[in-house]
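batch_manifest entry 22 of 60
target: 1-acylglycerol-3-phosphate O-acyltransferase
source organism: Artemisia annua
requested by: lab member K.T.
priority: normal
notes from requester: please return tokens only, no post-processing; we will run our own comparison against the previous entry in this batch. if the run fails, retry once and flag.
--- input ---
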Amino acid sequence: MEVNSNGPETRVLTPLRLLRGILGFMSVERKWEVDESSMRQMLSSFNFPKYEDSLWLAVFPEGTDFTEQKCIRSQKFASEKGLPILHNILLPKTKGFAACLEELRGSLDAVDITIGYKNRCPTFFDNACGVSPSVTPTDGGLGHGKRTRKATVNVIPTSEEMVGSWLMETFSKKDQMLSDFHLRGCFHNQGTEGDLPMIPCLVKVFGQIRKTHNIIA
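--- output ---
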């Protein structure tokens, strides 16, 4: 999901925005009364036979990047509303997540991914230059760990209120995992990631591009 901070009146069609539209990014205003209609319309377009076995929906419920100031505001809001006070991540936005489940519940399963960085989070420049997050901080890299958990959609509640409670509980656990990660330098039972083989990866990438071309055509 792409967040537009300029508002609908000043939105400009830039090459990056055009590319995001082609790739299926959802542009949001962070105002549910504005976003709900367009978000549900786009989600319903994903729930279509042509996307069978080819739909991956990446959702970042926090809605923005993590900074110290945003964390303080998030903690203040949590304290006022009686919600969990998180230290390593921000409170998740529950309405958009609930809408995704409501529209696509029969089309996907949920995979919960938590990534911890030992040194610092990667910047856009790091990603553009291909800085490997697996390099240890002592070697000048980022150093990271990752925990992946599959959460079958059937175990996630159906009502918006219960979905919100489930998401808050999940983020509380993620926050505790990240606190443990920063103390220990790794996640509990964290495995070691190896390098991906180039040729099989390229075959899969070009196969997916061809499949996407056939879907669009």
